Structures are given as structure tokens and as C-alpha cells.
Amino acid sequence: MWTSRSPSYQNGIGINKNSGTRDKAYEVYWSGHSSKRQHGVAIVIKVDSNIIVEEIKCINARLIAADINLYGCSIRIVNCYAPTEDSPTSSKEIFYTTLRKQLITDNNRKIICIGDFNATSSAAWHNSSLREHVIINDLVVNNNGERFHELFNTQKLSVINTWFTHKTCRRVTWHSPDGTTKKIYDFVLSCNWLRQYITNCRVYNSYDFDSDHRLVIATFKTPCTKLARYIKRNKTVQPKRLDYSSLTNAETLTRFKNTTTENLNTIELENDNTSLNDKLLKSINEAASNNIPVIRNPKIYQPWHNDEKLQELYRLKDDLMLRNSDQKTIKATRKAMAQRIERWLPILKVFLWWWFESHSVRKLEWSKLMDK
């Protein structure tokens, strides 16, 4: 048995907190018109120590967003109610523009978007796995359906309703009053990261709450700890840089030629030019890696690091900043450092010129070798 208090209205925004027995409680956050009974959206969040409600954004009567922290995972839930197909184009543009702004978050916050989009799409009637940049044969689609497709493509979202194989009765979300017309208007969208933790999404017809819409439930089983959410990625191995200038040595050049000849003799000629090119490149690269030495990056000598006077000025500046000394002393120290650094500028210019010239020579040697 649940008991509820009357919602407190403020500019069309209401918060209804429901409390009950058996350690269960829910908070209802509602956004809509305070006077007329039209539109209105709400989000129900369970009261739990592991669920922290960070911010509730009641945008208008068609949009509401909630930023929550679920077991350490930052999630934004957006509930929306799109204009119908007969609505003016201006109202549709305003709705989708506002919705896109709410779907833009930082990289650490995940997105779940649910609601009635009033969109007709034939791809929603079967397991089409709708997501961004997927080419589908959508035979029946209305204007709201086209806007819906553009939304999840531009925002890189996945339509969870279309990722599971279910009967038609478990896909239909709207029934006409006479029961003859059936549509799929309600969708669940999520970002690609959350998609891997979704186990099911279907319509439950057994729930009767005096509406022509049916209840859509998506089940997410996300890890409860940050360590469990960690995905181990393979480290990228950087390719070795070969010293092609060593080919000027007659002995190294002879070894490279002999190894290349041996590798080329083992290649079997085929009609497929693509595979033949791959084998040629592989044999030449193997000969180069086995005979040409690797460039060892030497430690670059920077003579200004050995300037004791300059290093002493650096330490003095750090000490003054830590002690919060007067600004005159700090300015005088910075001026002395600038004068000291000016002495090293000619040497720094020569060093940079040598570095760029040496790299350009290496590129030139490699281009000449490839021409041969």
C-alpha cells in the first residue's frame, strides 16, 4: 500500500515523493503545464543509497532530463513526448533542437533516451539492429520517422527495441481505441557503451494503466563497480624505425640484397595481383627488419639545462611563488630569467635548424631508396 503527498507545483514543475513500507520508496519528477491537462512527462527514480540524483532538468512540457549516479556510473536519462504527425513543422523543429541539446554531454556521462516519438518506421517491426550509419530498407516511414532516423544517426545512439527478436505482440506499443490499428511509437535509445549491457527490451501487455499505450521495459545489467566496468585494451605496438642511411655501407647493402632475393624466390606466382603485391611487400619488409639496424633515439643534449645560474633563478621563482612574496621581487626574478634565456636563443635556433635538416635528409634518403 503506497501513500503519496500532493505534488508541489512551481512554473509547471512538480515533484511527487512516494513512500511505502518494506524499505521501498520512489520519487516522481514531473514536468508539464500547471493548469491545463495537456502533454507532460515524468521520471520515476527509486530511492536507494547507490542511486544519487545529481540534477533534474524540467525543460518544458515535452522534455525532462535527470542526471543520476548509479553505482558510480554517471547516466543522463531523457524522457520525451514528440509532437504528432499533424503538428506544425515549427513545433517539430523546436522539439528536436531542444532534444539534441540535452543529448550532448561529456564523455563520462552515458545516455538513455526514452519516450513517445510518434514515429512510423517499418524497420521497427523486426530485428533490424538500428544504430548510427546503418543502411536499412525502410519502406514505410513518415515525417516523424525521418526525423527520428536523423536523431539517432547524428547523436550516435542505438534503438534498443530493434535489437531483439520478439513476436509482433511484444513490439506494438500503441493500440487504437477500437483495437484495429497497431503502431510502434515508443522507443528506447541508448549510447553504444550501454548497449553491451542490455539483456532484453520488449512490450508487456499484462500491465493495464488506463492508456492506449503499452508498457515497454528495457533490462540493463551494468557492472556495479568501476573495476568491473574496465575494458582491457590491447597496447598498440609502435613500428621500429630503421636506419636506412646504413645502406651506404657495402656490407649491409649486400646482406639486404641477398635476403631480399631469397625471399622473392620463395614467392609463388598467382593470378591474383592483390595477394602478390602483399607478398612482395611482406618479403621486402622482412629483409629490411632483419638486416637494417634500428635507430636508437639518443638523448638530446640541451646545454641550457646545464646553466647553473638559470636553474638557480628557476628555483628562486618557485620558492617565491610558494611563499606568496611581494610582486616586485617576483617580477625582478622573471626579468632576470628572461635576460638569461635570451643568451641561449641563438644556440636554440641552431639546434632546431639542425634537427629539421637531419629529418629532411632522412626522408630524402628513403625516397631515393624507394625510387631505386
From TrEMBL:
Residue ranges of domain Endonuclease/exonuclease/phosphatase in the record: 75-216
Transmembrane segments: none
GO terms, molecular function: catalytic activity
Protein name according to UniProt: Endonuclease/exonuclease/phosphatase domain-containing protein
